[in-house]
Amino acid sequence: MSKMYITPSSKIVALENVNLQIQQGDIFGIIGFSGAGKSTLIRCLNRLEEPDSGKIVIAGQEITAMNKKELQLARRKIGMIFQQFNLLDAKTVFENVAFPLQVSNYPKKQIKTRVEEILELVGLANKSKAYPLQLSGGQKQRVGIARALSNEPSVLLSDEATSALDPQTTYSILELLKDINQKLGLTIVLITHELDVLKHICNHMAVIEHGKIVETGVVEKFFLNPESDTAKRFISILQGFQEKRVYKEGEGI
Amino acid sequence: MNDDVLELLFTGLGETLYMVLLSTLIALILGLPLGIILVATEKGNILESPRINKVLGTIINVVRSFPSIILIVVLLPLARFIVGTTLGATAAIVPLSIGAAPFIARIIENSLKEVSFGKIEAAMAIGANPLTIITKVLIPEALPSLIRGLTIAVIGITGMTAVAGAIGAGGLGSLAIRFGYMRYRDDIMLATIITLVILVQGVQLAGDYLATYINRKRYKFD
Questions:
Q1: Residue A84, SS3?
Q2: Domain ABC transporter, which positions (chain A) (predicted)?
Q3: Exposure winner among A160, A164, A166, A202, fewest CB in 10 A?
Q4: How many CB pairs under 8 A join A and B?
Q5: Nearest Cβ partner of A88 from B119, B121, B217?
Q6: Which domains does chain B have, with CATH numbers?
Q7: B141–A90 C-beta distance less than 8 A
């Protein structure tokens, strides 16, 4: 799959010959530095960005071959969470989570039980009448996750979902995602620039550099045997910090 | 001030309110869809269509280029065609509505553009169609801003009714011109101005109150 941005002065290749296969039930992390093309890649998966060429297949359906109507239907089974949460401020937590179900024409009664069930799962059962502006960042992302999951998607796309959160909140959101992955067997595709995210919940990963996938495999490999430039840089930053800490705490190895 | 003056004032106020309310209503019915189309057909938006956007934008700019008194005069034949006369408050509503609709369209466009595109993308990502995005995301999210914008529009239209009053529409504007200015009745002039000031203040207060009420509901901590 390829994606090019055409600007008045030049053509920018955002993604070039990206070829990825993600197993059902996996938590798959795509890591890269800013501007590497991560966001473009994940947004191409549900065609918030249109790829120029190539094929995207999710749960046996060829997303890239769909017309607008078919795409709308397919998107109902692809959950997505965002760095900036993108909740609707005019709607309560309950209404935000119910929105995908209304869009899919669920009967009212079913919506109520489903929303209550999913709010219970993300730990916000007592906040259903609150408005997003009254919540903390971590709570907002929980609502985002609940909204993404309410229509029982086959895959969850996470576009830097924890990048706007502090480390402790990040940790609790990651735990929640892991929990959901195990409970529901939900496939999660996430992009991140945080090593912790990769380390904490991902099984498989891909490293993206200048719009190309330069390394794929299980997460352990990234830490034990980094091959690509980006991976080595990430690891050296991590090691740099660890060495500093060793000196400071005087522990030695 | 004697009773006659008071009666003149009340009739004028009644006519003004009638013109403002109906003109705003019709202008809103015309302008709301136009404002939505302006936003939705923008590049990268839910119903992207550069051609429609450009044509509509140009038409709106052309109508808005007319000074209001000229637009009212130009549209009087249309008023005669629809209402049967060019005189009186009802006849004035035709040019007033048409004159205010592009103004309202621009105000609505402005408010709707304040809604962050991320919210629209989130709605697209759950498979909502453009109509749902407009009615369930764009308008509710922009509501406080829309109300503030409409307040500006109502006050603008009140000003336009005074202009229309000068050329036969009746209302407070006509009263100020015919009595206050032409007959040197300073007391009537003053009374008209005070009434208009109170009217505009009232509209502004009501608009502010409504917008704040909605915002406070969304921000309230319990």
A1: coil
A2: 1-235
A3: A166
A4: 71
A5: B119
A6: 3-219 (1.10.3720.10)
A7: yes
A96 touches A143 (CB < 8 A): yes
- Using the Cβ of A78 and the Cβ atoms of chain B, whether some distance falls under 8 Å is answered with yes
Distance from CA of A89 to the nearest CA of B (A): 6
pLDDT at position A128 is 95
Chain A residue with Cα closest to B117: A86
A133 vs B contacts (CB less than 8 Å): 218-219
CB-based contact (8 Å) between A72 and chain B?
Answer: yes
* Chain A residues 149-178 with CB within 8 Å of chain B: 151
Kindly state the tokens that stand for B40. 């939705």
CB of B53 within 8 A of CB of B41? yes
What the block records as the tokens of A201 is 């919940």
Mutation pick from A76, A89, A136 vs chain B, by most beta carbons of B within 10 Å, is: A89
B170-192 pLDDT, tens digit per residue, is 899 999 998 988 999 999 999 99
pLDDT at A102: 96
H or E segment and range at residue A100: helix A93-103
Which residue type, as a one-letter code, is found at position A71?
A: L
Poorest-pLDDT segment among A126-130, A174-178, A201-205, A219-223:
A219-223
With beta carbons under 8 A apart, name residues in chain B contacting A46: 125
Dihedral sign of CA atoms A142, A145, A150, A154 in order: negative
Tokens in use for A245? 């800490």
With a cut of 70, say whether residue B123 has pLDDT above it: yes
A chain contacts of residue B217, beta-carbon cutoff 8 Å: 131
Signed CA dihedral, A229, A232, A238, A243: sign only: negative
A43-52, pLDDT tens digit by residue?
Answer: 999 999 988 8
Q: What long-range pairs does B58-62 form, CB within 8 A, spacing at least 24? A: B59/B102, B60/B34, B60/B102, B60/B105, B60/B106, B61/B102
A78/B125 touch (CB, cutoff 8 Å), yes or no = yes
Distant-in-sequence, close-in-space partners of A124: CB < 8 Å, separation ≥ 6: A93, A139, A142, A143, A146
Q: Is the interface score ipTM higher than 0.90?
A: no
Locate the domains of chain A by residue range: 3-77+153-249
Query: What band does B29 get if pLDDT is binned at 50, 70 and 90?
Result: very high
Written out in words, the top-level CATH class of the domain with range A3-77+153-249 is alpha beta
Say if CB B122 and CB A80 are below 8 A apart: yes
Task: Report how far apart, in Å, the C-alpha atoms of B174 and of each of A80, B165, B178 are.
Answer: 59, 4, 6
The answer to whether residue B183 neighbours chain A at the CB level (below 8 Å) is no
Q: What is the pLDDT of residue A196?
A: 86
